[in-house]
Write a structure and sequence with these properties.
Elements (H helix, E strand, L loop, with lengths): L3 H23 L4 E9 L5 E10 L5 E10 L5 H14 L7 E6 L6 H14 L9 H15 L1 H19 L3 H4 L10 H12 L1 H14 L3 H14 L2 H24 L6 H21 L1 H14 L10 E3 L7 E5 H24 L2 H13 L2 H4 L4 H9 L7 H20 L1 H4 L4 H11 L2 H4 L1 H12 L5 H24 L1
Parallel strand pairs: 1-4
Antiparallel strand pairs: 1-2, 2-3, 5-6
Length: 473
């Protein structure tokens, strides 16, 4: 028992028996995959694979299948490694009915290619990122892809760092927001406007009394930056954009996420952004001009040529009015709308609304036959034209029956509860197509917490092993 070789044999035996139980529990049925990667303590890229499936009792199960060292993180290489690991346990890739990936992964640049490759093999292997993270990505994209907004956020970050270095950031309520917590930017910008004079005063003091030349020069430069009309214009623009997306951001981060409500908020947010683009420019300029008047900031003549950077000698071929309206205001909103439309695509929207329509919450209050039928069309291998006709008839009888059986179905929460009770009451055999849709909806992953926990365990175990080796020597 003290021999390392024998210990490894025992652990490998346990692993094989565990995986054997998982495969038997899966019973050659459909499954989803959760994939993530991380570097271990040896700085080697490791890919973790988790299976998500519904067992014979109707229970939603997520099981860690294995870790694979990946030397190449291209889409084709990742697909090959995933299929190879599945094949190792006699699992057919044709049974994949859902994909889930961590949007913050180092492999993210290749994930879209990987999703597409698997979808090409399996048209029903859909992928939906965590909704809250999708919204974060749309906001991050605006910041990174629009030069003026990116420059604005750099200036804002520098101001917060300098003010923070003075020890007054907590007093002013100007904590620096995180890149993946964009809801916090809304509060920061709101506080920035309220405390603008105090911030200018602090920077002015540092410009005169800083501890060194660099600190003085930076403070002086930042005062000039934040007292420019363009900075104030983007400050108000981003505040209004974040105000529109703030409620959506909060709703998507709730643990008891309501997909119907979330999708309605997505549509509402898109409409609000479009309305802002079409009719809110004048009100934005009024707010900006009022702020500038109050804080003695020079307002440029809108019909004059726009000066590039801080140098008034360098001018572009467009006017201030054109630059601020077309190149900043419209371009920023268009970029936000474009990213929202791509992240919250029609397919993902239909999938989630269909799933929500199957939910038993509040006695099937969200039931919508049309949305459920639309959901079924995204699984062409399972729902042929004739099967869709059968499903339509099944749904009519099914919904009347479950609503009459109020004592059985009234207190159910979510599709997980529904799946188990359908199996327990043998209703899954009567309305098999409805149950198949429930099962496929459960298989489709919308979060990757399980695979992330697998990496936490891996790092913990490898760290212990590394410490143990050091102690041995």
């Amino acid at each position: 028992m003290t021999s390392p070789d024998i210990q490894k044999d025992i652990v490998n035996s346990f692993a094989k028996e565990t995986v054997k139980e998982i495969i038997e529990d899966l019973n050659e049925d459909f499954f989803g995959i959760l994939v993530d990667e991380s570097k271990d303590v040896s700085h080697k890229e490791q890919m973790a694979l988790v299976l998500r499936y519904v067992n014979e009792k109707g229970e939603l199960i997520e099981r860690f299948l294995g870790l694979v060292h990946v030397k190449d993180t291209t889409a084709h290489a990742l697909q090959k490694e995933i299929y190879s690991l599945l094949l190792q346990y006699s699992l057919s890739s044709s049974l994949i009915r859902g994909q889930g990936y961590d949007g913050a992964s180092d492999m993210q640049g290749n994930i879209n290619g990987l999703k597409t490759l698997i979808l090409k093999d399996n048209p029903s292997a859909h992928c939906i990122h965590c909704f809250a993270y999708q919204l974060q990505l749309t906001l991050v994209a605006v910041a990174k892809k629009h030069h003026d907004v990116n420059n604005f956020l750099d200036i804002l970050a520098n101001v917060l760092n300098v003010v923070g270095g003075s020890g007054l950031n907590q007093e002013l309520g100007l904590q620096r927001p995180g890149d993946t917590r964009w809801g916090s930017h809304f509060k920061t910008l709101r506080n920035f406007i309220s405390l603008f004079l105090s911030i200018v005063h602090i920077l002015g003091v540092l410009a005169n009394e800083g501890s060194n030349y660099q600190e003085k020069a930076l403070a002086k430069s930042l005062v000039e930056d934040i007292r420019s009309y363009q900075f104030v214009c983007i400050l108000y623009l981003m505040l209004k954009l974040l105000a529109i997306t703030y409620d959506l951001n909060m709703a998507l981060q709730k643990q008891d996420q309501d997909n119907v409500r979330a999708m309605k908020l997505v549509d509402f947010t898109k409409r609000q952004l479009q309305t802002m683009r079409e009719s809110k420019w004048n009100s934005l300029i009024e707010d900006v001009s009022s702020f500038c008047d109050k804080n003695d900031i020079v307002i440029p003549k809108m019909n004059e040529k726009y000066a590039l950077g801080k140098s008034k000698r360098k001018s572009s071929t467009v006017t201030y009015s054109h630059h601020l309206y077309i190149e900043v205001f419209c371009a920023t909103i268009d970029l936000q709308l474009s990213k929202l439309n791509s992240r919250f695509s029609e397919v993902n929207t239909s999938l989630l609304l269909g799933m929500a329509s199957l939910s038993p919450d509040d006695s099937f209050a969200n039931y919508d036959k049309n949305k459920i039928m639309k959901l079924a069309t995204y699984y062409p291998n399972e729902f042929t034209a004739s099967k869709l006709e059968d499903l339509s008839y099944e749904l009519d009888n099914y919904i009347d029956y479950v609503r009459e059986m109020d004592n059985v179905f009234s207190n159910l929460k979510g599709l997980g509860d529904l799946s188990k009770i359908l199996v327990k009451t043998n209703i899954h055999k009567i309305w098999g197509l409805v149950y198949l849709l429930v099962k496929l909806s459960l298989i489709l992953p919308v979060a990757t917490a399980m695979v992330e926990r697998a990496f936490s365990s891996m790092k913990f175990i490898k760290m212990i092993c590394k410490v143990g080796l050091v102690m041995t020597f």
